[in-house]
Amino acid sequence: MSESTAPGGIRNADLLGVYTNDHLAAATGGIELVSRMLGRWRGTPYQPRLEELRDELLEERSGLRGTMEALGLPVREYKQAAVWLGEKVSRAKLNGHLLTRSPLSDLVEFEFISTAVLAKRAGFETLRAAGEADPRIDSALFERLIAQADKQHHWLADVRREVAAQVFGGHPGAADAAADT
Fold this sequence. Notes:
Blueprint: H1 13-41, H2 47-71, H3 77-90, H4 103-130, H5 139-168
Protein name: Ferritin-like metal-binding protein YciE
């Protein structure tokens, strides 16, 4: 494994290209999932926050693309297309209901997007740290996106517990420490 250094001080620029393309593809999948969730939750108290989340995801994807452009990293469109298609195929999953939407789908979608927010937050931390090695990376942008992801996860963790209680019973309760890490 070579440790190539790109102009500006980034090591392993080729690996950073793979890494950022993977996060960019995941952002596309997240936008698609939240857009679908909006259809389900339209007219409910969750709609405004889901709309805000979708808008923030679009902004985050744009910021990531801008960083890739600043670093001269190519966008691998086939990864975008594969995730987009995968999200569409995932709608056909077996969930205990053949012709109707299962309440379990509501819970699984909130669990998935909540977990995905933590993964993207980790990616933002990585890129913020890489900004120390390369001034072409806007570390302040990633600092802001980390704070935004924290806010998103906090809300999603609460909603996930509410939906779980609606599906299986019981009370949503407060998140334990592990849910907020």
